[in-house]
Amino acid sequence: MEQGTADLGVGMVGYAFMGRAHSHAWRTAPRFFDLPLAPRMRVVAGRDAAATAAAAQNLGWEGSTTRWQDLLTRDDIALVDVCTPGDTHAEIAIAALEAGKHVLCEKPMANSLAEAEAMAAAADAAAARGVLAMVGFSYRRLPAVQLARRLVEAGRIGQVRHVRAQYLQDWLADPASPRTWRLERDKAGSGALGDIAAHAVDLAQFVTGERLTGVNGMLSTFVHERPLPSGEGTGPVTVDDAASFLARLSGGGMGVFEATRYATGRRNALRLEVSGTAGALAFDLMDLNVLHFYDAADPEQTAGFRRIEVTSPSHPYAGSWWPAGHGLGYEHAFSHQVVDLVTDIAAARQPTPSFADGLAVQRVLDAVERSAAAEGAWTDLPA
Amino acid sequence: MEQGTADLGVGMVGYAFMGRAHSHAWRTAPRFFDLPLAPRMRVVAGRDAAATAAAAQNLGWEGSTTRWQDLLTRDDIALVDVCTPGDTHAEIAIAALEAGKHVLCEKPMANSLAEAEAMAAAADAAAARGVLAMVGFSYRRLPAVQLARRLVEAGRIGQVRHVRAQYLQDWLADPASPRTWRLERDKAGSGALGDIAAHAVDLAQFVTGERLTGVNGMLSTFVHERPLPSGEGTGPVTVDDAASFLARLSGGGMGVFEATRYATGRRNALRLEVSGTAGALAFDLMDLNVLHFYDAADPEQTAGFRRIEVTSPSHPYAGSWWPAGHGLGYEHAFSHQVVDLVTDIAAARQPTPSFADGLAVQRVLDAVERSAAAEGAWTDLPA
Amino acid sequence: MEQGTADLGVGMVGYAFMGRAHSHAWRTAPRFFDLPLAPRMRVVAGRDAAATAAAAQNLGWEGSTTRWQDLLTRDDIALVDVCTPGDTHAEIAIAALEAGKHVLCEKPMANSLAEAEAMAAAADAAAARGVLAMVGFSYRRLPAVQLARRLVEAGRIGQVRHVRAQYLQDWLADPASPRTWRLERDKAGSGALGDIAAHAVDLAQFVTGERLTGVNGMLSTFVHERPLPSGEGTGPVTVDDAASFLARLSGGGMGVFEATRYATGRRNALRLEVSGTAGALAFDLMDLNVLHFYDAADPEQTAGFRRIEVTSPSHPYAGSWWPAGHGLGYEHAFSHQVVDLVTDIAAARQPTPSFADGLAVQRVLDAVERSAAAEGAWTDLPA
Amino acid sequence: MEQGTADLGVGMVGYAFMGRAHSHAWRTAPRFFDLPLAPRMRVVAGRDAAATAAAAQNLGWEGSTTRWQDLLTRDDIALVDVCTPGDTHAEIAIAALEAGKHVLCEKPMANSLAEAEAMAAAADAAAARGVLAMVGFSYRRLPAVQLARRLVEAGRIGQVRHVRAQYLQDWLADPASPRTWRLERDKAGSGALGDIAAHAVDLAQFVTGERLTGVNGMLSTFVHERPLPSGEGTGPVTVDDAASFLARLSGGGMGVFEATRYATGRRNALRLEVSGTAGALAFDLMDLNVLHFYDAADPEQTAGFRRIEVTSPSHPYAGSWWPAGHGLGYEHAFSHQVVDLVTDIAAARQPTPSFADGLAVQRVLDAVERSAAAEGAWTDLPA
User: Fold this and answer.
1) What is the pTM of this model?
2) D54 CB contacts (<8 Å, ≥6 apart)?
3) Cβ pair B264:A242 closer than 8 A
4) Is C188 left (phi over 0), alpha (psi -120 to 50) or beta?
5) Closest by CA position to B381, among listed B201, B238, B241, B231
6) Distance in Å, alpha carbon of C322 to nearest chain B alpha carbon
7) Contacts of D175 (CB under 8 A, 6+ apart)
8) How confident is the model at residue A1 (pLDDT cuts 50, 70, 90)?
9) Which chain D residue shows the shortest CA-CA distance from A151?
10) In this predicted model, what pLDDT tens digit does every residue of C11-34 receive, in sequence order?
11) Can you tell me the ipTM of this complex?
12) What's the distance, Cα to Cα, between the start and end of chain D in Å?
C-alpha cells in the first residue's frame, strides 16, 4: 500500500465468527497486497454496548456503536460489512445501499427469496449510482478454487458433464449438541441448506460458469428436539439437518449436491468434482491448498489426476504471501475477498459475487425447499 | 481341499470378460481355500463352436458346447454359472433351476423387472427342492466390504444417517468410443444404471443391511450416436450414459447415488461412504484393499478416519492368501464368491446375495427409470 | 487481551521473508489469544534507511532505524527479534541479551558451532538475570506437531525404534536458478543443511524428546556454478545442495535424515515419521493440519493410521482460531510462537526451544559436516 | 497359448510362501498371456514326503519328491524354480545350471557374497551353453514399476539427483513375536537386510538404471531374545532387525535406504522416490496399482504429481488382465515374472534380473554389513 493512498472507511455490523474473520481480513489484506485504497476500520456495531466495545478493541476497530444505523450517516464510512445472522441482512444491506454505502454482505444473502430479490433490486439501483454490493461467498477466493475457474474458462475441462458437490460437517451428529439459533427457522432461515449447501451451489456455479436450471430436492431433520444452550430444557429444531438434490446445469450436465451436519468424522469437507469432455477437477476444503486436475489430453500411459499444490508464485493470490509450498489457511479467503472488493471499488467496477449471484443461489435454495415439500418433484429455475 | 472331497461339477455359459473372471475363480479358489466340495470345470457353452472350444482350453474347462441346454441334462454338472449378457439371464437361469442345477448368475440379474421377478420366483421354488441360486454382486466379497458390513452389524456405525455411493467410469467420455452392445437397450437393458449403479445399490444395501424405500431419479444420455464397432457408420445409443438418484433408507437415512461412464479420469471408482451416529465408513474400489473407518467413540484429540489395510490374518478372506500387507486385486472377489457359494451349497444353506436380493436391486433400478421418466417424481419401493 | 495489560515493547532486526512472517505474528497473535503482555511493535532495524522505513509502515512497526544497536538502549523495548541472515545472529543476539533484552532469534541459530556456543553461554548468563532467549524453530508450534509431542509424552508411541525425517524442496532443481546469498557459505553458513535439515533435526528431537548421539553424514553440491542474481555472469555455489545422514537416538532408536533443494515436485515437504513399540506418527508440512497416528493397541481388524485433522477445540492452539475443520496455514506457527514466548516472559519461565536446544541442533549440523568431510565416518555427539 | 506350443517342464524346490506364489504364477500366467512355451508343472521337491505330496496336489504339481536332485536328471524338466530359504540357493542353483536346467532363483540370491559370486559364475558358464538363469526380484514386474523404468529410460526424469527407498514392515514390532528361522543368521543369512532391503536396492537400481557405488551402513537388532516357535523357552536373534544406509549412485546422485521389521503400522510398505532434473517418481507397494509422476516440463500453474492408475491397456502387462481401472494384486508380479522368463527362454535371450544383477544386489548388502561393522565407514562397491 503506497503512502498517500486514499482511505476507504469501513463499518462492520456483527462481531461473532464471521465478524472475527472479516476483521482479520481488513487488518491483514493491506499488509500483504498493494491495495488501491487504504481500509480504515472505523466502527463495529452490535447490540450489547459493553460487548461491542470489547470486540472493537479486540478486533482492531476504532470505535463501536449499538446502532448500526449510525454507520449510514457517517462521512468517514464508505462501506458497510454485514456479518449478522441472515434475518437482518436485507434490512441492513438495503438501508446501507440506499445511504450510498458500498456493501459486503455475508452469505446466505437472505433468509427468504423475497428478501434476496429486494436486495438484488436495491443493489441494481445502487449500482446505477456507483454504489457497489458483494456477497461473501469467500471460498471463491481460495487459490485452488480460482485456479479451477481459470482452467474451466481456458477450456481445459471442456463441456461439463457432471458436477458433484458436497458440504459435509458433523457438529450435529451428536444428539446432545445444543439447540442454538442456527437451528431456529425464524433466525437462520434454514439449516444445512442455507448455511452450507449455499456454498456448494455458489462454488459449482462459479467454477463451471453455468447455472442450475432445475432441481429435485430432499430435506431431512433427523433430531427434532435438542437441549437448549442455557442447559435448561429442550427446544424444537425447525430447520433441515441435511439437504440433497439433483440438478440440471445450463450446459446440459448433471449435478448432484449434498449438505449435512451429520457426516460423522467430516468436520468441514466442502468437496467439488467437475467432469468434462476435456478434463476433470477435484477439490476438498479439508486440503484447501490443493487442486486435483486431470487433463484428458495427456497420453494414456502418463495420464492421472495431478495434485497441484496451489502455492506457487504464478498461482492466484499465492505470490503475495510466502514462497512456494507454504500453505494458506481458511481465513486467507477473507483477505482475498477484501483485496478483490477494494480493487473493484477503486476501479468503480461491479465486484463478484454480486447480489444477483447471491440471488441466483437463493433461488436454488428456494427451489430445493419447494421441491422437497413436493416429494422431490422437478422444480424449474429461471434461466 | 482334502483328498476325497466330493466333486461339484460346474458348467459355464459365456466366456467373455465375466467368463474369464469366473473361470479364474473356479481354478484358483480351491488352491487357496479349503473347500467342502471340489469344483470340476466340466464345460463352457457359447454360440460359436470354434471360439468356445478355444475358450475352454484357454480358460481351463474340460469341454465346450454350443448349446447351453446341454448343461441341464448332464449328471456331472451340479451348478450352472451364467456369464452371458443380461438379455439371456432369465431364460438360462430359470431353466437351470428347474432342471435342478444350482445357479450363479452375473449381475444385473435381468434386463427387466418382470424377468427378475420370474427369476426370484424360480429361485424360491427351487430352494424348496434344495436347489440354490446366487447373483454375482462380487464386490460384496472384497475384504474391505466384508469388514464394512461386519462393523455395521456390530453397531460400530450406529444408526445410519447418510449413504453416498458413486460408481464412476470414463470409458464413454470420448465421443469416438464405439457403440457396442452395452449401449443397446434391447441387449443391455440399460446403460450405467444396470451395469454399475446396480453395484452401488447392492453395495449400499449390503453394507447397511437396509433397503431403499423410494427414489427421485434422473437419467441422461449425453451422446446419442456413436461409431459402430465395425468401423462403418454410426448407431444410436439407446441406454442411459449416467444415472443419479436420491433415496430414503428403511432406517430413516438419506441416500445419494450416482453412476456414470463420463467421469473423466475416474477409470472404475466405486465409492461408498456411510455416516452413522456411532461412526462412519469410506471405501473406494480404486484402493480396494483399504477401508476407512471413523469411530465416534474415540476421544476428539485422536479421532480421525483410520486407513485400515484389510490384509491381515484376521480380516475377511485375507488370511488364506498372503501375509499382512500383500494386497489383493479385482479378481479375488470372484474367488471369494466361489468359496462362499460352494460352502453354502455343501451346507445346503441359501447363499447371498440371493435372487431375492438381486430382485431388490432390480426394483430400485426400475423405480429410478420410472422416476426419471416422470421428471424425478418420488417413486416408492415395496417394503 | 485485557485492557490494562502491561506492554511488551518489541524491536525487530531484518524485514525480509522472516521479518514479514514475524511481523504478521506480532500483529495477529494478540487478536486471537489472551496474552498476559501486550506486544508493541516499536521499531524495525535494517541497513537501507528508505527501505527500512517503508517496511516499518508496511509491516506495522511504529518506527525504523538503520542501527540495530539503537534497540538495545531504548527503555521501551524489552525484546529483540532477530530475523537477519545467520551470519549476524550471534553478534546481535549476544549484544541484546547483555543489554538485558529478551531475544527471539531465527534459525539456524548461528553459522558456526563456535557462535552457537557463545550464544548459548550468553543465554545462560542472561537467564540468571531473568533475561530470556528463544530460537525460532516455528514448526514446533504447528498444532499437529504439538499433538505429536503430547502423544509421545503420554506414552502412546512407546519406545522409539525409528525416526525418518525429510525436508524436501525443489527450488534449485532448475540449474538456471540464481546464485543468491543462500548459496554463499560466508553468508549462509551452509546450504540445505543449516536452512532445512536444521528444522528436521529440531522436529525429530522435539517430538521424540530424545537427542541424536552420533551421525554418519553425506553432503552434495550438484551444481557448482550458477547465474548471479544481477543477471551478469555466474558465481560459485559454496554450500551443500543436499544433506543426508544416519543417526542413533539417545533411546536406542535409529534415525534417517535427508534435506535437499533438488526434490523435483516437492515444494516444501517437511516429513516426519516416528515408529515406536506402542504406536507410530506421520506428519507432512504439505498437509499441515493433519497428523497420522497409529495406535498399536487397536485390535488388528480396525487398526490403521488415523488421519487426525488437528483443528478441533481440544487440539493445541486450534480452539483460539476457528470452529473445527477450518484449517490453519504456514504463518500460524509464528503467531503461536509469539503466544508461547510472551506467556513465558510474563511468567519469567524459560521458553523453548532455548538457545541450548538451538545449540543441540547446531552440534548435529556440525557433526554432519565433519562426518561428511570424513566420508561419512561415525561422529559422536555429546550426551 | 496356442495349441501345439512346445512344453516347458518345470520342477520347483520348496513350497512355502514363495512356493505358493510361484505355483500360482505357473498355473495362471498361461491363462492370461500368450506364452511361446507351455509350462508343465512336473514336480515339487521338499524334505517331508507326505507334506510335499500334499503340497503338490494342493498347488497343482503333477508329482513330488524328497530329493531335489531328482529334478536335474529328468528329461521332462527344463527349468528348476528355487523357492527354498537362502542357505540352499547356491547349491541347488549351481547344480541345476550345471545339469543344463534353466533356473529361476528366489531372492535374496544367496546368504553370502561368496555364494552369490559362485552362482553368477555358474550362470555365466551356463549361458555360454544356452542355459539361462534369473533371480526373482518380482517387484520389477509390477506394472507401476515397469512404467517407472520406462519413464526413466525415455528421459522423463532426467539426471537422477535423489533416490529414497524404504521397505517398512512391522511384524517384529511386538517383542512377543516368535524367533522363527528368519531370525537365525545361519539359515537366513541376514534379517531385514537380505529379506527386504534387497528388494529396495534392486528396485532402485532397476528403475534408475544405475548402480550404487558405495555406502555408509548401519544395522540394529532391537530385541535380542525371542520366544521359540515351539512355545518352550526363548532363542537368540542373530540377524539385524533393521538396516539403513546412505549411498552414492553411479550417475552422481544420492541414495537413502531403509529396511525394517519394526515400522509399527506399516505392514509391507516398499516405497521408492526418484528425483531428477526433468521429473520425479513415487511408488508405494501398499498402493501397488499407482505410480506418481511429476513432469518438470509442465507449466507451473498445472504442475503436480500425477496419480497414474497403471491399469489401462497401454500400461505394462495390464492389457492382458482386465479393463482399465481393475486393479491387480501382489501375486500378479509373479505371473509376469513367468511370462517374461518363458518368453526369454523361448527366444534364447538372457532374462533379467540376471544372476549378475542379483550379485550386484548382494554386493550392496555385503558392503552395508561391512560398513556397519566399521561404524558406518564409507565402503566402496566395484564399478
Assistant:
1) 0.97
2) none
3) no
4) alpha
5) B201
6) 16
7) C277, D223, D226
8) very low
9) D302
10) 999 999 999 999 999 999 999 999
11) 0.96
12) 42
